[in-house]
Every structure is written in structure tokens, then in C-alpha cells.
Specification:
This protein is mainly alpha-helical and 164 residues long. Helices cover 49% and strands 5% of the residues.
Length: 164
């Protein structure tokens, strides 16, 4: 699927988090096209569990809507349009999105563009969030932190290289 880059890419991330790189790289689960990840799949559940440890604070639809000043239905639409990304971090609790995707009542600048690039390259929301929230010493820090600090150009370049 063309997801391996010279910087290690998703396959090395998946290996780091003890999931099958081939399975995750070829997956189409998560919130891509509005579907919910199948929590009965052990590899996907393990990957989501690892994601839950990478991200400290999660928001449900209504909390995200309050922060953005929109309805929970609009939040769901933003997820479908890949302006935001959401997963089920804890089985049985329902879909949530990372609180760090929202800042000062708006979606963090650059997040929609990076998510679109990754989704166009075949990544689902779980994979995209894993990449955004995994520390990268060469950046330095996490891609989401770089976006929040208005250093998005390098993040977008790396997303483009990974996705295609």
C-alpha cells in the first residue's frame, strides 16, 4: 500500500506497539467512511489500547461539540469528513476523539489537512492518531505538538511521504 518511508513509517510504529504491521497496514476499520472498528479483532483492539495510552484526554461527541460551539451531529460529520479523527479507546464506551485536536474553540490548524493526506493514503483513524501522537525525535516531539506550535509544514511533508 506504499506506507513505508525512509523514516520507518507506520510499519515500524506498529511493530513498536506489538501489532501485526501487515494487518494494520491493510486494515480499513476504524472511523474511515463512518464505520466503527470491530472490537472483537484482537490486533485492532490491542492497537487501540496502545493508542489509549498515547493519548491522555478523550472527548465524546457532546463534549467536543461544546468546545467547538457545534452540535454533536456536526462533530460526527467532521469525523466522517476527516476534519477530526475518532476511535473507541475503551471497548463499550463509544467513540471519542483526542482533546488535543481542539484548541481555543477550533480544530488545531493543520489537523484536517494531515488527516486528509493520511486517509487518502489508506490510513484509518486509528493509524492516523497513532502517528500524530507518537513521539518522533527527529521532529522533535509528537506531530500533534508540532501542529499545535504552528510547525505544520514539516508534519504535512512527513505525512505525504508516509502516505504515498
Amino acid at each position: 500500500m506504499g506506507k513505508v518511508s525512509t523514516s520507518g513509517g507506520l510499519r515500524s510504529l506498529c511493530a513498536q506497539f506489538s501489532c501485526s504491521a501487515g494487518r494494520i497496514a491493510g486494515s480499513r476499520c476504524g472511523w474511515q467512511h463512518g464505520g466503527v472498528a470491530n472490537d472483537t479483532d484482537n490486533e485492532t483492539s490491542q492497537h487501540t489500547h496502545d493508542l489509549a495510552t498515547l493519548i491522555a484526554e478523550w472527548l465524546d461527541w457532546s463534549a467536543a461539540g461544546r468546545l467547538l460551539g457545534v452540535s454533536s451531529s456536526r462533530v460526527r460529520q467532521l469525523v466522517r469528513e476527516h476534519q477530526l479523527a475518532a476511535v473507541v479507546p475503551v471497548p463499550g464506551e463509544g467513540p471519542k476523539l483526542p482533546a488535543e485536536l481542539i484548541d481555543a474553540g477550533a480544530i488545531v490548524k493543520g489537523v484536517p489537512g494531515v488527516l486528509t493526506v493520511l486517509h487518502d493514503g489508506g490510513y484509518d483513524d486509528t493509524e492516523a492518531l497513532t502517528w500524530l501522537f507518537t513521539p518522533d525525535d527527529t521532529l522533535p516531539g509528537r506531530p500533534i505538538d508540532a501542529l499545535r506550535e504552528n510547525r505544520g509544514a514539516e508534519v504535512k511533508r512527513r505525512a505525504q511521504a508516509m502516505a504515498f
